[in-house]
Amino acid sequence: MNELIGRVFHFEKQVFPSNLDLYAKLATDGQSPKALMISCADSRVVPEHIIQAQPGDLFVCRNAGNIVPPFATANGGVSSTVEYAVLALGVRDIIVCGHSDCGAMKALVHPESLDTMPNVAAWLRHSHAAQRVAAEGYPEAEDHQRVRIVAMENIVAQIAHLRTHPSVALAQLRDEIVQWPVDAATAAGWRAAWQSQLGGGGVFVRSSSNSEDLPGFSGAGLYTTVPNVKTGDALEVAVKKVWASVFNPEAWEARTAAGFGAESVLMGVFVQTAIDSTNAGVMITRDPFDAGHPHITYISAKRGIGIRVVEGRRVAEQVMYSSWSKAIQVLSRSAEDTALQLDKDGGVKEVPVEAGRNVLTDELVVRLANVGAAVKRTFNGVDQDIEWATVGDRIVLLQARPYVERRR
Ligand SMILES: [Zn+2]
């Protein structure tokens, strides 16, 4: 043990200082590992060593026999690791790594060796399929061959288990939908409409489903927007990405909590001219925090294209305006030092902006509130949840939907 403690001191004194830049970057930017690797706890098989990983490269889950139990609602270390890797870190590749001379695989071939280890025996039940395939498919195999066969079949079994995890299953389903072929006549129709109605310029491809704007369920921010699509081929892929976003994990969770399933969802796609906005945001024609406050307009804003405000990823600038007292109450100022702009090659790019300057001027707040009031009047006095943008001095309305109180 003393030897190991000595190595920790060596790490602190020698290894860490010589990799200071990398560790500092990981501390500031957070992690975005290239893959999740599920491997055996065997001390001889070191995933980071095998793929020469640097800190930050690999999200690792190790256990006896590189096992992934099938998904169950009961909490488990492996399922939590898979869910976090896929949903929080956006990991797209999962590696299940078996190895030769695996103690767990040997135990499957000789189950009598587990008599004194009830926990290991129970854990290895998740590999019984592999053991059976080996026994039934290769009855003549010698002992050492059988251990190797079980190790191989065990990887197949654990990958099958991975597919039972909702985060993985949903990601696979979305990928499949994006790869669906679209028949040539339909795709040609999309391109023709894009050319004739929107001049073939950059467009935002957005969701419009029957499972949003419902009483008690807003659905805002659950589905995917593909920004600044500039070619016919990209338009086709973007439409399929929006379709596939029916199976975004946040949409799945929100609908499940609200009590309706994916089979009732119909996803439409709407295509809107891309606007290189100066500022953008969301406006609600009442106080979202207190229904008892009439005459209030809530406005959130950021510089550049407003995708982040809609998706709620960073704190936006937020104000409340009273059309009665004409007072502007500032809830937060945007601390962002970057903004999104249209990229000339399609998509959006992040550009630095001067920090510390207000996004919303008092004059703009009043003008926006007046526009909001006009939209509300147009829709028979129903409070509205409005996406807006500015281009220079011009206010552009991107979308208005009935305001639905968020559940908190
Ligand atoms: Zn092993």
Question: What does it look like?
Answer:
The chain has 408 residues and is α+β, with helices and mostly antiparallel strands. The chain has three domains: 31-164, Carbonic anhydrase (Beta-carbonic Anhydrase, Chain A, 3-Layer(aba) Sandwich), CATH 3.40.1050.10; 180-274, ATP-grasp fold, A domain (Dna Ligase, domain 1, 2-Layer Sandwich); 275-408, 2-Layer Sandwich (D-amino Acid Aminotransferase, Chain A, domain 1), CATH 3.30.470. It has helices at residues 2-18, 20-29, 47-50, 77-88, 103-109, 118-123, 128-137, 143-162, 166-179, 184-198, 232-244, 249-258, 307-311, 362-378; strands spanning 35-40, 58-63, 94-97, 203-209, 226-229, 267-273, 279-284, 296-303, 317-322, 328-332, 338-342, 348-352, 384-391, 394-402. The strands form four sheets. A six-stranded antiparallel β-sheet has the order 10-9-8-7-13-14. Helix 4 (77-88) packs parallel to helix 9. It is elongated and about 85 Å long. The chain starts with a helix and ends in a 6-residue tail after the last strand. The structure holds zinc ion (ZN). Zinc ion (ZN) is lined by residues 40, 42, 65, 99, 102-104.
